[in-house]
Amino acid sequence: MGKLKTLQIIKTFPRNIHIMVASEALCALGMGMFFFLQILYYDFIGLSAEAIGTIFSLGSLFTLTGFFVGPFIKILGRKRILCIGLLICAIGVGFHMGFRAMIILMFGQILINIGTCLINVTELQLLYSYTIGKKECCAYSYKYSVNLIAGAVGALIAGNITGIEYFARIGYKKLFILAAIILIVTSTIRCLLLPKDITNVAENEEVKKSMRETIECLKSDKQIRLFSMLLFINAIGFSGVAPYNNLILKNYFGLGNNIISYITFSLTILSMFGLILMPGIIERMGVKKFNLTVFIIAIISCFMLAVVSSSELFILFLVIRGISVGLIIYSLDSLMMSNIAIEHRDIFASLKMLANGFSLAIGNFLGGTILNNLGYRYNYLYGFIILICATIFFYLKVRRYMTSTTINRSCSCNFKARHIEYKK
User: Fold this and answer.
1) Dist. CA 138–CA 145, nearest whole Å
2) What is the rounded CA–CA span in Å between residue 139 and residue 123?
3) What counts of helices (H) and strands (E) characterise the chain?
4) Is 2 inside any structural domain?
5) So what's the pLDDT on residue 50?
6) pLDDT at 424
7) How far apart, in Å, are the Cα atoms of 334 and each of 78, 174, 212, 292?
8) For residue 410, what are the CA distances in angstroms to 33, 129, 136, 137, 406?
9) What CATH number is attached to the domain comprising 83?
């Protein structure tokens, strides 16, 4: 009955929502394949961990593009920016197809980060604009669930596809072109099938006004400053660890691509179940206790990753850490946006991109340097220390702004998993 009810709810969504989600599945499939193979390809062609960290770090700096996109959304339109972002990602992935020169791979990573940034600042708002009534929570969770599943399937395909004789013969790096084609198809579908954007005439004053409002808000709103600082601390820790997990599993524990893909798939599916259960747990425990508990689990699992030698135990704690970190990211993301005044949310979204750009660049570089010079155990010790700092900062500075919560019950669908309403 539950499944039938869910299907009936999905059928009530407007056509544009289904187009967005179907194309989201394609995009997640292609990017899931690429991101799984990317770091393994870098290792395959002989790049050091430090060089890999430099590529990721420089690419992450271009996430700052998102800080400047906001004023141009009204001028170019969200759909146009979204489609351009997908095409830029496809070009960046294509640069990985047959090249080994670090400078070319670095340029490809820069394009991927710029494209991903354009997608991130427009996709969710576009989805909401197609939503009728109070169904934003349903549409978001519908989209996000499909994204997780398709991304996990992409990783699973990428890890096992070399077992097929044809693909084994041409080499897995050429599968990047398949991911690029999928992104181009996604862009084409969204460009042709989604409604036309409503845009305004370009005005320099509009851009300048938006920048002034952002700077003034950052100066006057202590809450936004604290939230941005917590995002910075979290991201600088996560980015020094997460990008290198697959490389560590391959080089230090001798696992094959197929086994790593099974681990990635399992972690993604378990994380999805965690997100589904998260609102109910928060409802019972409260925001402060829930986040502190998840932070502590992440800290303990990160420390255990630095000390265990058994591959079985390492995988177990890697999965636990992955789930707990995922819950931290998505819980705080919802909490922060829900506790910020509606008129300041676009500004905070831009500041998030600014904070993430700098922190990811620093974290990626430090992670690669640590792995190359000290070994993987120190990566997880680094993550352990940063998580402790983030937990202390959350407890002392941020938690007071996050009060009691309740699940939004205005929508009765089964997809309300991530939408939480916060009462002050």
Assistant:
1) 10
2) 12
3) 18, 2
4) no
5) 86
6) 34
7) 22, 38, 26, 16
8) 37, 19, 11, 10, 11
9) 1.20.1250.20
Structure tokens at 173: 């790096």
Domain count for the chain:
1
Contacts of 357 (CB under 8 A, 6+ apart): 60, 61, 62, 63, 64, 66, 67
260 found inside a domain: yes
Q: How many C-beta neighbours within 10 Å does residue 275 have?
A: 20
> Is-contact 82 123, C-beta < 8 A?
yes
Q: Structure tokens of 35?
A: 């991101």
Strand (E) or helix (H) holding 421:
strand 420-422
User: If you ran DSSP here, which 8-state letter would residue 62 be given?
Assistant: G
Mean pLDDT check: name the lowest of 53-67, 304-318, 377-391, 399-413. Answer: 399-413
Q: Return d(Cα 187, Cα 220) in angstroms, integer.
A: 39
Confidence of residue 366 (pLDDT cuts 50, 70, 90): very high
With contact defined as beta carbons under 8 Å apart, do 163 and 40 qualify? no
**pLDDT tens-digit map of 216-243:** 666 667 777 888 888 888 889 888 888 8
Domain-located, residue 4: no
Q: Which long-range contacts (CB under 8 A, 24 or more apart) does 200-205 make?
A: 200/74, 200/75, 201/75, 202/75, 203/75
- For 176, the domain range is 15-195+203-422
Do 119 and 86 contact (CB within 8 A), yes or no?
A: yes
pLDDT for 3: 45
Is there a domain that residue 5 lies in?
A: no
Q: What integer is the mean pLDDT of 180-188?
A: 93
